[in-house]
Amino acid sequence: MQAFWHWWQHLPENMNPVIFQIGGFKLQYYGLMYLVAFGITYALITYRIKKEDRWDLSQDHLQGLLTAMIIGLVVGARFGYVVFYNLRYYLEHPLEIILPFSFNGGLHFTGISGMSYHGGLICTIIGAAWYIRKNNLDFREMADLCIPCIPVAYTFGRLGNFINGELWGRATDAAWGMYFPSGDPTVLRHPSQLYEAFGEGILLFLVLWPLRKKVRTPGVMLSLYLIGYGAVRFIIEYVRKPDEQFRHPGELIGYVFLIFSMGMMLCMGMITDVLI
User: Fold this and answer.
1) Which of 62, 89, 164, 250 has the fewest CB neighbours in a 10 Å radius?
2) pTM, to two decimals
């Protein structure tokens, strides 16, 4: 058993996030996981359209709707990070919002780093609403169609975070903690990416998927999703390392209000918006 825990705790140190590299081109598991996530979501929605009598949506409309949602997701996730998590920095370095370079202390290639789930959610809804209105579809019906299929995609997205060695959790002495080389490699940390892969992905999918045929009131699935995701993410935020850019004078805290991180505040907003 001791050998297993040693292997488990040092697993992140032995993972290579790059599948293969040709010259300057790298194919990483992170990007592959997102492609798998989009593919599975598309397959599940297509399955529902074919197997359930409720839906009357052509493949052209489905592809157009998902394209609008994906564009909204990518744009919103980036600008959500800028606004919610690091606005002061990006006001001083506006080109870094859209360019994969850092100009702080010279020119450095960084890639587009920093994405926000909540920003992605907002603009995904905006993108979907735009397409739905343009094509005279029903927003609540389309939400009921798509929502039960979406959580499983988070499982792969969070696995991508895990393989990429990012978004790890707080320090812990629990046996299932892990050493992440991008943090202090001598400190055991909660593998919060795996907690989120299970909670936001598998658990939420197992709750919403069976309800897809039982809940008939239009729009209810979206409300259940917002409450469910918000609650799960809020709880996991307690073991996820707070964002270091949120500071009180002279002290690194990571909280924006009392003991609440930015992620917690945004999740409370999700839940409150539905309940009110």
Assistant:
1) 250
2) 0.90
The C-alpha atoms of residue 57 and residue 54 are separated, in whole angstroms, by 10
Contacts of 40 (CB under 8 A, 6+ apart): 152, 153, 156
Q: Phi and psi for 63 in degrees, rounded to 5?
A: -65, -40
Q: What is the DSSP letter of 13?
A: G
| Both structure tokens of 159 | 């696995």
The b/e string for 163-197 (b: 16+ C-beta within 10 A; e otherwise) is bbbebbbeeeeeeebbbbeebeeeebbbbbbbbbb
Backbone CA torsion sign across 265, 268, 272, 274: positive
Q: Under a CB-based contact definition with an 8 Å cutoff, are residues 190 and 237 in contact?
A: no
**CA–CA distance, 94 with 100 (Å, rounded to integer):** 12
Tokens linked to 276: 């009110």
The 10 Å Cβ neighbour count of residue 18 is: 12
User: Cα torsion for 194, 113, 259, 118, to the nearest 10°?
Assistant: -80
- Using alpha carbons, list the distances in angstroms from residue 205 to 102, 212, 224: 38, 11, 11
Q: Which DSSP symbol is given to 88?
A: H
Local structure of residue 181 (DSSP, 8 states): T
Taking the CA of residue 100 as centre, how many other CA atoms within 13 Å lie in the half-sphere pointing to its CB?
A: 4
**What digits encode the pLDDT tens for the residues 40-80?**
999 999 999 999 988 889 999 999 999 999 999 999 999 99
Cα separation of 123 and 264, whole Å? 19
